[in-house]
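worker-3 :: picked Spermidine synthase
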Amino acid sequence: MAEDGTTDGTETSGSEPTDGSGSGRSEGEVSSRHLVTDRRVALSVTFVVAFCSIAYELVYSELLTVFFGGTVLRYSITIGLYMFSLGVGSVLSAQLGEPESNFLRTEVYLAIAGPAGAMAIVAINSLPPIDVPGAGPTILALSHVPILVVGVLSGFEVPLLTDLVENREETVFASLGRLYPRRIVRAILGAFFTIDDPDNRSFSEVLGVDYLGSLAGTVVYALVLYPRYGLVVSVFALGLLNALAALGFAAWTFSNAARTLSRPTVGQWRAVVLVGVLLTGTYGGLVAHPNAVDRAVTTTYLERTIEREYPPGVADVETRSYDTTSYQTVLTYERDVQGHTDTETCLHLDRAIQFCDRWVDSYHSGLVDIPMTTFDDQSSVDVLLVGGGDYIAVDHLRQYDASVDQVDIDGEFLEMAREREFFRQYNDDAYEYDRLNTTTQDAFTYLQESDETYDLVLLDVPGVRSDETMSLYSTEFYTLLREHLSDDGLVVSWVYTSGDHPTHSKVYANTVRAAGFDQYLPYYAYDDLDGDGGLEPGERFYVLSDGPTPTPDLERAESDYVHANAETFGEWRWRSLPEYRGVEPNSVLHPNYDIIVD
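worker-3 :: tokens ->
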């Protein structure tokens, strides 16, 4: 039996010719003397196919999450559709002949379809809004088509490869027979299954290589490709790998070293190989300039997305800077809007605007200065600032000589805010404040590990637009905040308005109430948002309490904005947090996805 890769045949002369149909010495006879063989080349390409295919699906999942929200939902649907389409491809592969030729074609088609699918998802979701019945579901359905295309092509792989590698030989999986205690493993398996000696079929080994490639694809994508290159460049890197694998397979098949793989005429493969060469050159050039490619594609998409928030032709957006960190994209841009007297400079993080220079002061005055006026001795106030990586809130707190513990998960963004003039013009080097202690950590983890108590907690955090931020809007998180409050402590956050997001507001109210808060003080920060000289309500804020209900005294504010607009705040009135029937709070263990704002 040849389960360990040995043969009982005698090796023929090295000068014996071989034809394209696989005559001459058998693969098994030369496997022990040749490091590179037909079977090993084919299995290596299989590893690459599986590696790239699963990574393509991860790219698609992330893109769909960006456009449609709901990380768990998008990844679950992507995995389900991918597995389904793998089965469809496997069934359809029974109709295919010439495994060498079709295997090469599959590699080239994947090199085209993978990156093209990602660009198609971006393009479909960058179209101008279409006010036609059924447009939304149609765009959603079309955005999932690339998942099926890559899945079907990947489903061809295992059946085709099984036809290519019929006989066992010394591959990595066959060699494992010497690396693990076979008797022990067989004894364990024998306790639960009926066992027999391995046969000479290659299917299990091919499938093993395929699964190994999928594992490598998920790990390398998560730990290397996405953190280092982002979505756009990663998908081109995967396309390059697919194209290189196709060319390597073609080169080996046409070489004199190939023995069992058939060798069709050059004319049959000429077009496919030419496409592979063009793809390799194109993708290689793109991957060689990752920053330029990522900036060009992403900023163009973001500019069009921001312009789509207005009627056609009303807004013109031009990027000033674009960066990616391990946690978010950071875009600064200039916005010209018809009817506004001046051009605005704005900051955009991931999918949401953070501030524009027209209202940056009113937002931070509402978040910081109003609640600080509820304290008699402001210099004795201990503040926990969650987020606020631009240091602008810290600058406002510095005016009161308050003690500040800041927790922000994105150290790269913090460094950016310390170094770049765009941020420094607003924060006035507040990172140098001597009563500031900044911790780069997830706020949830920080609260679980900390024993500190605070008089004031300020939540300068991103909106809940995906699963990644849902924990910051959970009952568990607000419970932790309440547990870290002093006896007279308060929590302050900007909130989505109930008029624009009624479902979110109901879930949020029940979530906060379930955490133990029963009173809230609502108010708006007014500003001239459209540049017409009149004031409009801007950000909405809640001061949350589980006991004390202090009244702000605006005379204590260290803010020109507050003094100039004191009359806009009206009468201060604490209210009981409403409780909505039939609405579940959002919990880490029992998430309510209605809290996500699209």
